[in-house]
Design goal:
The protein is of the alpha/beta class and 361 residues long. The protein contains 15 helices and twelve strands. Helix content is 49%, strand content 12%.
């Protein structure tokens, strides 16, 4: 984290705590948010919910934080399902203030073990976008293989110059985190064959005992079909996150078609119901385009979620739904006493004020 980022984070915490414990956060979302055009549907995006100590990818939300967040949202927001949100966006009726949707990406087992009981307790609807290949093969997602390999290694460095990436120190915890984030960021741009080759190379170089894809990842952190069916029966909606978490805009169109269509087919065969919701892997503005959107429509999905921050309003494209990613800055790296005020401010849109945008530059 750079000096400027630390200053900004400190300012966010200070402002959030001041607003939260004075009641101004709720006042802001009800009054200022309405005046500034905050009325619309906000979709939150989670990944993991667990207390594991290593979070090199920045995807974890601690169980206590998640429970506190769901309790807060249940008390202060109108939580609806994603399907109801789509119907609301298509209707002529006004969107109620403070409408929010909960989603999860990837399909981690801790969604079932830790998030699901909390969702049931507070009767909160949610959608889980699952990547189907890891469920079928019982193997980790490619970026999880990189992260877990680097976490467990006793080596001090890895040389990836043969892949035009450079050398990375992996001796300390901070070095491992930085190396993981940078390598995963670069590998997202690789073609599937290149990506597979690099991941296997990293596992070989760092002596990963799980390089054989038939061996399960530690803690078996991918959902099983039985767990998915149980959540579905309770009311959790299941959507597709493609077959292999490939960046759809980076592969040939036929490859993207297969990822989009086949994942839908697999889910429908396994769950015995129509799958109509999709989320783009990675989800940034560069990770999908009009051709990909056309494929998603053609496959029969009614919407698709990105990971671009914003609020969804009527007349917005439902195949590029905006979502607020709940990252580790809010959910893990800040103690609970501060993380709840920051979470509340983030969801209320407090950090979208013009002067905060200027400070962030």
């Amino acid at each position: 984290m750079t000096g400027k980022e630390k200053i900004f984070l400190g300012f966010k915490i200070f402002l959030s705590v001041m607003f939260y414990y004075s009641g101004l956060t709720l006042l802001y979302k009800k009054i200022v948010g309405k005046i500034w055009g905050q009325n619309g549907i906000k979709i939150l995006a989670y990944h993991k919910v667990n207390n594991e100590p290593h979070d090199y990818l920045g995807l974890n939300t601690t169980i206590s934080n998640f429970k506190a967040q769901m309790k807060y949202l249940k008390r202060n927001y109108n939580i609806i399902s994603l399907k109801d949100a789509i119907n609301m966006l298509h209707s002529t009726e006004r969107i109620p203030m403070d409408t929010i949707v909960i989603t999860f990406d990837d399909g981690y087992k801790d969604n079932y073990l830790h998030a699901f009981p909390i969702l049931k307790k507070y009767k909160i609807p949610a959608t889980i976008f699952v990547t189907t290949n890891p469920i079928e093969s019982r193997t980790p997602l490619w970026f999880e293989r990189i992260s877990n390999t680097i976490e467990k290694t006793s080596k001090e460095e890895i040389d990836l110059k043969c892949f035009e990436l450079g050398r990375y120190a992996v001796k300390t915890e901070s070095q491992k985190r930085e190396a993981t984030l940078e390598i995963v960021k670069q590998v997202k741009e690789f073609k599937p064959e290149e990506r597979s080759c690099l991941v296997n190379f990293i596992c070989d170089e760092l002596e990963d005992k799980n390089k054989d894809n038939s061996i399960k990842l530690k803690n078996n952190n991918i959902l099983s079909w039985e767990e998915i069916r149980e959540m579905k029966e309770w009311g959790i909606t299941i959507g597709s996150h493609a077959l292999s978490h490939i960046i759809l805009s980076k592969v040939p169109i036929d490859y993207a078609r297969h990822e989009i269509f086949q994942s839908k087919k697999v889910l429908e065969e396994k769950l015995g119901e129509e799958i109509s919701l999709f989320a783009y892997p990675n989800g940034s503005a560069d990770d999908f385009n009009e051709k990909i959107i056309d494929l998603v429509r053609e496959a029969g999905y009614i919407c698709a979620c990105a990971l671009i921050k914003g609020i969804n309003r009527k007349n917005d494209c439902v195949f590029a739904l905006k979502r607020i990613e709940i990252d580790d800055e809010i959910t893990r790296r800040i103690p609970l006493y501060f993380s709840m005020p920051v979470f509340a401010a983030e969801v209320a849109g407090l950090f979208d004020l013009l002067f905060l945008r200027f400070l962030r530059r």
